[in-house]
Amino acid sequence: MALAFITSNRLPIPHGFSTRPGGVSTGPYQSLNLGYSVGDLKQRVDQNFERFFQSASVTKDYIRTVSQVHGDRVLQFGPRAPAQTLEADALWTEHPGVAVAVKTADCVPVLLADTADKRVAAVHSGWRGTELRVAQRAVEVLARSGTRPENLLAVIGPSIRGCCYQVSSTLAERFSQRFGKDVVQGNAAEPRLDLALAIHRTLWEAGILDTHIDVLSHCTFCDKERFYSHRRDRGVTGRHLSYIVCQF
Are the C-beta atoms of 17 and 157 separated by less than 8 Å? Predict the structure, then answer.
């Protein structure tokens, strides 16, 4: 089966959210697992990346990723790859041809593009990163580099959604207080979080226009054929890669 990427009409530059079909991994990692640290065989992940680079609008030497730690650190990347893996949960670039990317399997990937001043960013936002407002931190870093938030375009990609993301009542209450009561769904006994809505609200509060924010509707927990889900698969599963290229 061929590789398939989910894209947004909101972004006029190369980008994509990878899906599950089209790779060579087997078992719980079937099939296009793009995560090396989840227990899959390295040679299979290598082959998956070869297929990824053949299909994606990005080259191997110009893609940048980080070791994600569920924080709010934002790093800038240039044309030269770093000598070691750096820890962060958001990364950006203004160098033509360079792509930034994050890996997810339920957490929320967010792609940002400044078409006026030609900068892009990728953000990994689980519940911890969402509570820390890592997406807002990314907007703030771009703004300090000259970006006007109202010029930014944002896409909130496939992730676990409010239909499936049950959490503790304590966490639900914290999110309700910080982001509004409507980010919590369900009932008091089984509250569920809508992380995408919380991130949408964070981006809007950071200055991005509501009309510039696209929220893709896919739930990674619901759709086992197309998505890995850390929660659904009880921690043994693959990883997706969400990328955006600084190509205007």
Answer: yes
